[in-house]
User: Fold this.
Amino acid sequence: MAGCRRSLFVAKLVAVAVFVMVSGIVIAQPPGSSPPLPLLPGSDPGGTLPQPSGPPVGSAPAPLTPPLANPQPVPIPANPILPPAAGPQPVPISQPPFPQQRFNIPKILPNMPTKSLLPTAPKMVPITGPVLTDDLRKVPEAEFEARPEKITNDGKLVEQAAYQLAKISHMNAKKTDAFMVALLENRPDLSGLPFVMGDDCRTSGERTKQFTIAVNTVRQALAGRVIVNDVNTGFSQQGTSPQPGGPMQGFWSRFNTTCEQEDANRGRTDKVLAEHVTLARIAALMQMLAPESAEIRLGLVKYLAGIPHVESSKALARMAIFSTEDDVRDAAITALKVRREKDYTDVLVKGLRYPWPAVAKRAADAITKLERKDLIPELVAVLDETDPRMPKMKEVNGKKVAVVREMVKVNHHRNCMMCHPPGNPNTMTSNAITAEVPILGQSLPTPSQGYQSSTPELMVRIDVTYLRQDFSVMLPVGEAHPWPEMQRFDFLVRERTLTTDEAAIYRDKLTPKERGVLSPYHKAALAALREITGKDTAPTADAWRKLLDL
Assistant:
């Protein structure tokens, strides 16, 4: 009897072993839980990364599909790329198939009028003059569409987003960027923003592939993982468990370790490819770390300081004038002291006339600390000019009108369709990077988690970008739940046409009420001139030209 029991026990063990061999190793999930979601570059809250079987993806929030009742196990690739012998042991990663989701959205007819294909414009908020404070919350906001009257989680906002993306795809199918052209023709509040279209807003080929890899590397480092991305596909092939100490602690160590391993796998003989890699990493870091803490951006300054490239010099100059923290700006200026001056001069000069006085003051301060005596004529020229926020006459459509350059802010997560076209799988290349549009009422991932990529109807292409910000900061948003109270806002400059009355208000608020009162731009230029030259004279351009024999 004992022998029979042992035989039966052995037989059961053999059966279990055969089942495991046939089924393969799987990632188990509890009943009713969602399957692992495919990630945008660097987004990996659960340890699931994209495989080479699909196109690279970019960045957007929480899964919008309901959890599957019986999630299927996902097999690990049979031959994963192995990491170097030294270092943490790899955790195999896999990607499940995209779930399919259908939306109850109206059919788009071929003859639908253009205006019916555009989003509902937000109510125009009267602007009563220039912003005269450094409080960025007071800066006017530009928006893609009107906010919903009520934020619900019943799926209606998801369907509305899918329908709008379908309408955009319908228009773009006839002509590239046709939707954006029509939007700007019908929206005066957006027409003055610095949109770029056509080839100017697109990356392609090797640049797109390397940008995919760079974005993925940053995301994984933010999430607290060391991932080695395949240098040929851009997809993560293997990774390590999250590092202790939280995702932000050790970010730069993780990022640099991954880059070193990727460089070793790729080799350093191809100079053209190395150029693509360098530019992709700079672009990804500057975009993704823009709203991060001062500590992280001090690390960014250090990273850029170690890259001898024109673009890294320009990036340092932008950090020197747009960063809100003194220590970040000082570190960027110090790094610029050993750089070729002509590579970043235009950033400082444009900063002197930026329509937010704080930036002009920082630009003048950077010129002073860098001892840029060659820019003395530019500082003197500022004294000859009116306040950059003052209205100017310009010919528009054959008429002389008053226009103003003003800084505006854009909520980074609420305006994806204003900055990116739909990610239509029928028209995208294999290297296209896509992201899922965030939906109000659904939870928003943290920056380290990135964006989700589970719903094809909600995808946009982040390798096509119509707008690029000058800088980004986190600002509080009221009644934000379930999104966090502090949200990312991107800042840029638009040119807006004013009515006669509006122009009069601007001039009245910007014109000194007493003789001898200087604008903040003139004050910044004068302070820099006095510090650089060690001299002083009347606060006019003519007086300084005479003093300096210019």
Summary: The CA atoms of residues 285 and 402 lie 38 Å apart. Residues 1-99, 229-246 have pLDDT under 50 and may be disordered. The two ends are 111 Å apart (CA to CA). The chain is about 40% helix and 10% strand.
